[in-house]
Amino acid sequence: MALKNKVHPGFLEAIRDIPDGATIGFGGFALPGLPGNLILALAEQGAKDLTLVANTTGGTRNDPGIGMLVARGQVRKAICAFTAATRASQKLPFTEFYEAGKVEAELVPQGTLAERMRAAGAGIPAFYTPTAVGTELAEGRETRIFGGREYLLEEALPLDYAFVRAWRADTFGNLQYRRSQRNFNPVLAMAARITVAEVEEEILPLGAIDPDQVHTAGVFVGRVVRIPPAPDGWWPQQPGSH
Amino acid sequence: MSDSIGLTRQQMADRIAHLFEDGWIVNLGVGMPTLCSNTDIGETDIIYHSENGVIGYGPIAPAGGEDLHLVNAGGQYVTLRPGAAVVHHADSFAMIRAGRIDVTVLGAYEVACNGDFANWKVAGAKGGGIGGAMDLAVGAKNVFLILEHTTRNGAPRLVRECAIPATARGVVKKVMTNYGLFEPVGTAFRLLEIAPGIEVEQVRARTGAELVVADDLRQVG
């Protein structure tokens, strides 16, 4: 019996079942690893009342990211390591909606964000971390002393869906990332009930990726879509080119 | 305007970079700290760690030679040095929390003489930008800060206690400003090195906490 073929023909088709109220995580740190095609498809698909998890709330209404979906009224809450623009002069859709009370936010230190998703994917309901002890983020929350040092209790962050971008995949969804494209993507894939991967290279037959070189095992991946060449597919642009 | 006297941004970064020791794993925050990677520190061999999981990155990629799969924590397209490694985010922060990073150099809005500092939220703001700063601040073996000595309005950034929400408590080891190099010693800042052309009394007047002067005070340079 062959392993399941998880290849889907298009982005919209691969995410059509996402219901209103879903919790969805996006990979990406700056542009590498950002699943721009799936985010654009989600804007078109139109699910609302979403809770979105990503490194930043940044991005304009035209860039694939939380900002775009906030501007379209699809977002209830963002869980991110940045809920303010990195430059105060930037006026981004998220900031506008957040200040007007039209979207909620949970600000989480970046390492805690990654570990909360890793824990969700690892069957661990909560963990203690030294990060954020003694800060505003820890106010009113459970801490405990281990070996004379204070740690803050953090709960796992499970996702309904994860959107990831990978360099290569096989038909079962075994993934490889290239360079810093990896970032949050492997932990997102672990944390989600359904992981959808957009993939840059042609989808490979089973066995074409050396098992020792798989970064995310296909067990963590539900659906795989090949990214078409630009302009049909979304690709980061070389700096300085237009 | 903030005082445009004393050291330039690059001179501040240069002084901090000369504190790095051979073989150290160094994490540079966004802004002035990234200038440390421009400093010529001779034979000292440093491994640069970026929070997005890139360990052992090298210089910024030349225009046209960018690898679109490879950025540092500031989102700049960088290169890799021989021996580099890439890990995912949870592993990158495991490395940070477990104390494998020798130093993180961060920017800050305020630093207190008890070693607290604040760099993620400005007064009155609804949102903030923590990024990896809280993890780095509690996990790195050394936390060095680079910041302007005063705010735009001339108010001190080196204070008795932080007025804005702290990033971490009691962790700062060294503070570099355009006035000189300091260390928080509990109830005061100790001035270790002073910028050329700056007098100790000027530093004292612009510092919002007690200032003690090192017995062997030197000039930065």
Describe this structure in words.
The complex is a heterodimer of chains A (242) and B (221). Chain A is of the alpha/beta class. Chain A has helices at 11-15, 36-45, 66-71, 93-99, 110-121, 185-191, and strands spanning 23-26, 50-53, 75-80, 104-107, 126-129, 143-146, 149-155, 159-166, 168-169, 175-176, 192-199, 223-226. Chain A has a single domain (11-126, 156-226), classed as Glutaconate Coenzyme A-transferase. Chain A has 6 helices and 12 strands. In chain A, the strands form 3 sheets. A 7-stranded parallel sheet of chain A has the order 4-3-2-1-8-11-12, with helices on both faces. Chain A has a 3-stranded antiparallel sheet with strand order 5-7-6. Chain A has a two-stranded antiparallel ribbon with strand order 9-10. In chain A, strand 3 (75-80), helix 4 and strand 4 form a beta-alpha-beta unit. The longest helix of chain A has 12 residues, at 110-121. The N and C termini of chain A lie far apart (48 Å). The mean pLDDT of chain A is 96. Chain B is α/β, with parallel strands linked by helices. Chain B has one domain: Glutaconate Coenzyme A-transferase, CATH 3.40.1080. Chain B is built from 4 helices and 13 strands. At the A-B interface, helix 4, helix 5 and helix 6 of A face helix 2 and helix 3 of B.
Give a topology summary:
The complex is a heterodimer of chains A (242) and B (221).
Chain A: H1 11-15, E1 23-26, H2 36-45, E2 50-53, H3 66-71, E3 75-80, H4 93-99, E4 104-107, H5 110-121, E5 126-129, E6 143-146, E7 149-155, E8 159-166, E9 168-169, E10 175-176, H6 185-191, E11 192-199, E12 223-226
Parallel strand pairs in A: 1-2, 1-8, 2-3, 3-4, 8-11, 11-12
Antiparallel strand pairs in A: 5-7, 6-7, 9-10
Helix pairs in contact in A: 5-6
Chain B: H1 9-17, E1 25-28, E2 47-50, E3 54-60, E4 78-86, H2 89-97, E5 103-107, E6 110-112, E7 117-118, H3 133-139, E8 142-146, E9 158-159, E10 172-177, E11 180-184, E12 188-194, H4 200-205, E13 210-219
Parallel strand pairs in B: 1-2, 1-5, 5-8, 6-9, 8-10, 12-13
Antiparallel strand pairs in B: 2-3, 3-4, 6-7, 10-11, 11-12
Helix pairs in contact in B: 2-3
